[in-house]
Amino acid sequence: MERIKLAEKLLKYMVAEKKAKDRECFKVEELKSLFLNHDFAHIGNALSLLKNDGFILLQTANSDPSTAVLRSAAIRHIEEDSVIEKGYS
Prior knowledge:
Layout: H1 2-21, E1 25-27, H2 28-34, H3 40-52, E2 56-61, E3 64-70, H4 72-86
Antiparallel strand pairs: 1-3, 2-3
Helix pairs in contact: 1-3
């Protein structure tokens, strides 16, 4: 369950950055620095979950995740969740 919560937090951060700064690429080191209470393995596992769900592309270096690239499905997912939370249909 913790991996899912971390994945959702990572996704929300990346979507917010996309909207605010038009960024699509995020270094794993940057994401790790934002979530200091999680080690590299937890971040990597959460990113793999997002990749498997089609929200990001995940580039690797030496078999380790290095860069997450946001996909448009991620933005739709976060926006749909926001609408549901506000009670709109």
